[in-house]
Amino acid sequence: MMKERFILPDGLVYLDGNSLGPLPRGAAARVGTTMELEWGRLAIAGWNRAGWIGQPMALGDRIGRLIGAEPGSVSVGDTLSVKVFQLVAAALAMRPERKVVLSDSGNFPSDLYMADGLAEALGDVQLVVVEPEEIAGRIGPDVAVLMLTEVDYRTGRKHDMAALTRAAHEAGALTVWDLAHSAGALPVELAGAGADFACGCTYKYLNGGPGAPGFAYVAPRHADTARTILQGWLGHAEPFAFEPGYRPAAGAERMRVGTPPILQMAALEAALDIWDEVDVSELRARSIVLSERFIAAVESACPDIALVSPRDPEARGSQVSFRFEHGYAAMQALIAHGVVGDFRAPDIMRFGITPLYLSEEDIDVAAGVIAKVMTERLWDDPAYATRSAVT
């Protein structure tokens, strides 16, 4: 556990790192250095002298270590939704004779929105959405792209990346994997699984901060053939040649679009300093121990809520979700009593299990508070029923 490396709110057990990771203790100083010593003293020279222009690929390699990616295959920048759009477009262009993007109903809505919007723009492409357990059976000769989030954002259900990627390839399709709830939560082996494309965010388990940039992975075998519908200036082979026509950069760097968010990247850099010291396999083992302890304690004390995460720890990510009719109000009551999770409509109470800063004691305290809120019906207070903009 590396709890001392984070700034956590006093008096709270923080079980929401799967939504927004806490502040790394070194991040404020790192951002301050970037602002004062780089931006402040170097001004525009920071792009060269402080290495700003190279940050997207340098940080990409550091993230790549955590997701089983080859060196030079990950670029950082823009948002996760933008990356989904780019990668699905690139994959579709590589299978022009096929017209289906296949996904599942457990995928994050933004991914589905992006794919649907792209399909509408192209005109002859269709987004097909089936239940998670129906994915393998639906992969067929009409599918160009299999677009899945490895870990379901609501339930924590985990897809078998290697098996589904193999099935997609056997059918002639390409894969785009969203790692929003995988990167920093469990071992990912993109190269080992043969994934074609992947993307993710850095503000959840990676603790890069609110608005931290997304990342994109392009398998080296596709690096110089994949094309992106978003032909941004910094994805050009020579941005400062200022050519009127677009020539894509080599490899994953062509997935760069807009100007890198340097201040956000400074905070992410500080977060990755912590990750450089982490063995993800050990982290995963610890996550399973804590989540099993949490489930056992909550279920023994709270018969009114139902586990919706897979019971097999190998089949779920690093989160535990329960279903309760009054889940929103119950979560607000929990937060008021010092346990922070979050709510996902229509009735899911979600708890992130993040071993970097959670202990057995934290788990036991959280389970005790949940039991109190449920058995004493503390959620049945009108004050907890008013919904905020962010749930």
From TrEMBL:
<dbReference type="InterPro" id="IPR015424">
    <property type="entry name" value="PyrdxlP-dep_Trfase"/>
</dbReference>
<feature type="binding site">
    <location>
        <position position="81"/>
    </location>
    <ligand>
        <name>pyridoxal 5'-phosphate</name>
    </ligand>
</feature>
<feature type="binding site">
    <location>
        <position position="149"/>
    </location>
    <ligand>
        <name>pyridoxal 5'-phosphate</name>
    </ligand>
</feature>
<feature type="binding site">
    <location>
        <position position="80"/>
    </location>
    <ligand>
        <name>pyridoxal 5'-phosphate</name>
    </ligand>
</feature>
<keyword id="KW-0378">Hydrolase</keyword>
<dbReference type="InterPro" id="IPR010111">
    <property type="entry name" value="Kynureninase"/>
</dbReference>
<comment type="subunit">
    <text>Homodimer.</text>
</comment>
<comment type="pathway">
    <text>Cofactor biosynthesis; NAD(+) biosynthesis; quinolinate from L-kynurenine: step 2/3.</text>
</comment>
<keyword id="KW-0662">Pyridine nucleotide biosynthesis</keyword>
<comment type="function">
    <text>Catalyzes the cleavage of L-kynurenine (L-Kyn) and L-3-hydroxykynurenine (L-3OHKyn) into anthranilic acid (AA) and 3-hydroxyanthranilic acid (3-OHAA), respectively.</text>
</comment>
<feature type="modified residue" description="N6-(pyridoxal phosphate)lysine">
    <location>
        <position position="204"/>
    </location>
</feature>
<protein>
    <recommendedName>
        <fullName>Kynureninase</fullName>
        <ecNumber>3.7.1.3</ecNumber>
    </recommendedName>
</protein>
<feature type="binding site">
    <location>
        <position position="233"/>
    </location>
    <ligand>
        <name>pyridoxal 5'-phosphate</name>
    </ligand>
</feature>
<dbReference type="Pfam" id="PF22580">
    <property type="entry name" value="KYNU_C"/>
</dbReference>
<feature type="binding site">
    <location>
        <position position="259"/>
    </location>
    <ligand>
        <name>pyridoxal 5'-phosphate</name>
    </ligand>
</feature>
<dbReference type="InterPro" id="IPR015422">
    <property type="entry name" value="PyrdxlP-dep_Trfase_small"/>
</dbReference>
<comment type="similarity">
    <text>Belongs to the kynureninase family.</text>
</comment>
<feature type="binding site">
    <location>
        <position position="178"/>
    </location>
    <ligand>
        <name>pyridoxal 5'-phosphate</name>
    </ligand>
</feature>
<feature type="binding site">
    <location>
        <position position="203"/>
    </location>
    <ligand>
        <name>pyridoxal 5'-phosphate</name>
    </ligand>
</feature>
<feature type="binding site">
    <location>
        <position position="181"/>
    </location>
    <ligand>
        <name>pyridoxal 5'-phosphate</name>
    </ligand>
</feature>
<feature type="binding site">
    <location>
        <begin position="108"/>
        <end position="111"/>
    </location>
    <ligand>
        <name>pyridoxal 5'-phosphate</name>
    </ligand>
</feature>
<dbReference type="InterPro" id="IPR015421">
    <property type="entry name" value="PyrdxlP-dep_Trfase_major"/>
</dbReference>
<keyword id="KW-0663">Pyridoxal phosphate</keyword>
<comment type="pathway">
    <text>Amino-acid degradation; L-kynurenine degradation; L-alanine and anthranilate from L-kynurenine: step 1/1.</text>
</comment>
<dbReference type="GO" id="GO:0030429">
    <property type="term" value="F:kynureninase activity"/>
</dbReference>
